Amino acid sequence: MRISLLYAVSAVLVLSGFSCLAQTQNAPANATATAPLTAPAKDVVFTQEQLDQMLAPIALYPDPLLAQVLMASTYPGEIAEAVTWSKAHPGAKGDDAVKQVSSQTWDPSVQALVAFPQVLATLGQDPVWVQRLGDAFLAQPDDVMDGVQRLRHQAQAAGNLQSNQYQNVTVQAAPAPATPAPAPAPANSSTTIVIEPADPQVVYVPTYNPTTTYGTWAYPASPPVYYPPPPAYYPGSALMAGLAFGTGVAIVASLWGDCDWDNNDIDIDVDRYNNLNRNTQINRNQNKWQHNSLHRDGVPYRDSRSREHYGRQLDGANQRGAFRGDDAQRAQAREKARSSMDRHGIERPATTNLQARDQARRAQVDNRMQAGADRPRASDRSQGTGGNIRESQQPRQQNAQTNQRRQELSQTRQGTPKRPTASPGSARNNAFAGARSPSQSNAQALRGRTSQASATRPSAARSAGHQISRPSSAPMRQRGGGRR
């Protein structure tokens, strides 16, 4: 009986332990399942203050024109080329100007801006601002669109934004946010201000002073920049407040983008786009703008997300090696050859232009050092390599001196004055040699006359030790012998 009771108690304890263990194991899973998911932190490149400052000069443009500027600003290098082209063709505008640049390699959004030379004249005043504007639109499109609406509400509150014969300004209800805002939203965030041309086929580009058009600027430390309008398109417009409109630009298909304030992106009118851009047709599904990194022209992206997204390799890049015949077997053989070169002390061939230039520069330095090492030093000129050179030159010098003595002796016997000859290694005589040392020339002339006089003296001169001429021994050699 006791044994059965003990078994029962043990079984109850074991079952209780398994139950607690199961609850302990399930607790983390349940906690993970019920914990709220937090979105990854957003890479903020520009603050709200910086965005408002860079958006102030263009926030009051008509929506279609603003969309074209935002798209084109992501290609700052091509905008600079378009500015140059517009300056060289001051009379080109509208659809006709866009057709003239159809052969250019620019993005269609940049080509569309040549229809508005006054806009390009403004953008050309500050290329850095244009690049920052494009970087902001790529990295923070929602913040950029929200900044435009924030500035438009400020201009409307200041009484500087309303409908007229040039534009239609409408206020629409903003879409309800998908998630509740963490903080109280501003009063004007519930509405969206839309600016459209009064005539869809004529666009008037406004010009204004952003330091006064938005009322009291919210950031005194970072006031907006005012780019004066080109006088050719805005004659006599000295602006202090409000908007001014110059000559309208007649268009039919030049503006094919529009702001989508519900999704904070840009819609594309496919029909207008295809009518204008015959070389780059799109289909109906491509009605949302996408940045094309091919037209970036090497300008680096500012934020890491854009660099990762737009800076990746093009499709099919991983297949280029196989197309060129480069496979794993060839790579292994190439690495084996490089290892063999390292073992034998041979420098590896250059794989880039920079390495090739460095190798050529090192080779030039080595050649100079080798040439300096082979050249005999001043201390070794009398010994070593220099001594060998001097020793090799000594027989030549001795032969030259012997020939010179023989020539002097022959001239003395014949009574001809001896001519001064240059010793080996000395300067060569010329017609002006006597002018340098007159005393030496006189001594040589006197010595020649003395030799000539001694040759004609009788035998008494022999006692004085002078040499006299003797008959040649050639006849004796002809007779078969000489004196014995």
TrEMBL record:
Residues 294-312, 323-347 have a biased composition (Basic and acidic residues). The keyword Signal applies. PANTHER family: OUTER MEMBRANE PROTEIN, OUTER MEMBRANE PROTEIN-RELATED. The keyword Signal applies. The lineage of its organism: Bacteria, Pseudomonadati, Pseudomonadota, Gammaproteobacteria, Pseudomonadales. Keywords: Signal. Residues 284-484 are annotated as: Disordered. Pfam families: DUF3300. Transmembrane segments: none annotated. Residues 394-404, 449-464 have a biased composition (Low complexity). Residues 1-22 form the signal peptide. It comes from Pseudomonas chlororaphis. InterPro entries: DUF3300 (IPR021728). This is Protein of uncharacterized function (DUF3300).
